[in-house]
Amino acid sequence: MAFFDKLNQIAKSATDIANEAIDSGKGMAKIKKEQYNIAEQYKKIGQYYYQQRTAGMTLAPEVEEFCVAVDLSKATIAELEEQMREAKTAQPDETDEVPFADVDVPVFEECSCPKCGAAVAADALFCGKCGEKLN
Fold first, then answer.
1. Which candidate, 48, 52, 63, 66, places its Cα nearest to that of 40?
2. CA distance 63 to 75
3. Pairing of strands 110-112, 119-121
4. Second label for 44, Cα 20 to 30 Å away, from 64, 77, 114, 129?
5. First CA to last CA across the chain, in angstroms?
């Protein structure tokens, strides 16, 4: 019976260690969640002060610097969006050149695979579809 008692102690010890690891993992997940919540609150604080500045409130110079950076990013986004709209609506006229229009594209002779019928280059050694060895 001593053997089974020892085996039970080892199993209980392993279970305790596993439960501690699970509890530790849950604790880490809770810490990560709270860190995320803090980051979200920081964002809200920043948005609040940016809105206050927009409404005319004078902010500390350090905060004003951050707000100016946001203004510059917003202006850049607006400019890029306008460029994208212009590019999307621009229609090529008849004088526009077609890129690569004067490039000769080589033409390859084709034949078909005797096994599956797929089109293959005449000089191919194997079919690209079924892998059949060609002559």
1. 48
2. 19
3. antiparallel
4. 77
5. 77
DSSP state string for 50-96 = HHHHHTT----HHHHHHHHHHHHHHHHHHHHHHHHHHHHH----TTS
* Model pLDDT for residues 60-82, shown as the tens digit of each residue: 999 999 999 999 999 999 999 99
Instruction: Determine whether 52 is exposed, middle or buried from the number of CB atoms within 10 Å of its CB (0-12, 13-18, 19+).
Output: middle
Q: What is the spatial distance between Cα 16 and Cα 22, in angstroms, rounded to a whole number?
A: 10
Give the DSSP H or E segment for 121.
strand 119-121
CA distance 8 to 14: 10
Coil vs helix vs strand at 113: coil
Angle between helix axes 2-54 and 61-89 (nearest 10 degrees) is 80
Largest CA distance in the chain: 97
* Three-state SS at 18: helix
Rounded CA-CA distance 59/69 in Å is 14
